[in-house]
Amino acid sequence: MKALTKRGFVKLAAAAGIAAGVSIAPLGTAFAADKITVGALRFTSHAPSFIAFERGYFADEGLEVNFEFFQAAQPMAVAIASGDVDFGITAISGGLINLAEKGAIKVVGGGLQEEPGVDGQMILVSKAAYDAGLTSPAQLKGKSFGITQTGSSFHYIAHKIADKEGFDRSEITLRPLQKVGAVIGALKTGQIDAWAIVPHIAKPLAAGPEIESIGMVADYIPDYQVTTVFTSTAMTKDKPDLVKRFLAAFSKGAADFNAALIDKTASEEEAEALVQLLHKYVYNDQPYEKAAPSIRNGAMRINEGAKLNMTSIADQLDWFKSEKLVPETVTMDLLVDPSFVETN
């Protein structure tokens, strides 16, 4: 039997009440929606939340959603811990893990993941660096690499490239620039040599005159769980049903996204409708005709049912510990609550 949402229950109760001649309170009176704030970046990778909002999946689960937009992952983790934001979807950062160690935050689901056969994150270099001979990730030794903050996913990627190519992590010079926009500007002007980013941003950049693509992150970090869904530890303990309802709506949004833009099992009309929906949030400062190809071509798999790759999470945690960015005492149990979604 299909689970009954709050909205569905109210409709059913109303129908039963009418049949029995009983007066029913208006929708929203007896069952007020739970108001939540969702942290997001204006990336295609955050599409499930935008789709769930626009198509009423959150409302169907009795959730009234407000979005809080960020420029990087670590500030979102701080906002979750402070209670300013209820759910976040972004990469695991050192800040997030340290807050988890203090009992403030839990990862409860998976989002974006590298997958064979699906274009993923791209390794980019400035045109100046490319012309000077930086044409392969193996040549990143001695070069500069843009990151938002120390302990960000970009930091992790840079070091995983160094590990696989066999040179010391210290031989990549990291440039923390705080915001994605600042990293893009520095790469275009040659102030940094390299960076790596999701395809909806990377492909348009690589198509321009200032930046070249030299590799794929998936070749260095197979099955990388790029983003996760996280919330406060208090939410998992005090309102587990709300967490489940959030993940249910999020998963419906992910299913729509994958069907339209990854598996392409949906119709072209559905794909076009979805791209138009996402344009409200992604590249909304550009004309639709310019933004649409980037949204389509930059799609990566969002895990079905918010499934969580525990092997990837464990690898990330080990890296943070190896760099002494988080305490050795942090365990997977402190970081992840695996009770809400399927894991592997």
UniProtKB/TrEMBL annotation:
Q: Which keywords appear in this protein's UniProt record, sorted alphabetically?
A: Signal
Q: Cite the InterPro entries for this sequence.
A: Solute-binding_3/MltF_N (IPR001638), SsuA/THI5 (IPR015168), TAT_signal (IPR006311)
Its GO biological process annotations read: alkanesulfonate transmembrane transport
UniProt keyword Signal present: yes
Task: Name where it's found.
Answer: Periplasm
Q: Which domain of life is it from?
A: Bacteria
Gene3D superfamilies from the UniProt entry: Periplasmic binding protein-like II
Q: Which Pfam families does the record associate with it?
A: NMT1 (PF09084)
The keyword Mitochondrion belongs to this UniProt entry's keyword annotation = no
What are the annotated GO cellular component locations?
periplasmic space
Q: Which residues form the signal peptide?
A: 1-32
The Solute-binding protein family 3/N-terminal domain covers: 35-269
PANTHER family listed in its UniProt record = ALIPHATIC SULFONATES-BINDING PROTEIN-RELATED (PTHR30024), TAURINE-BINDING PERIPLASMIC PROTEIN (PTHR30024:SF47)
Protein family (similarity comment): Belongs to the bacterial solute-binding protein SsuA/TauA family.
Name listed for the protein in its UniProt record: NitT/TauT family transport system substrate-binding protein
Protein's organism: Stappia indica
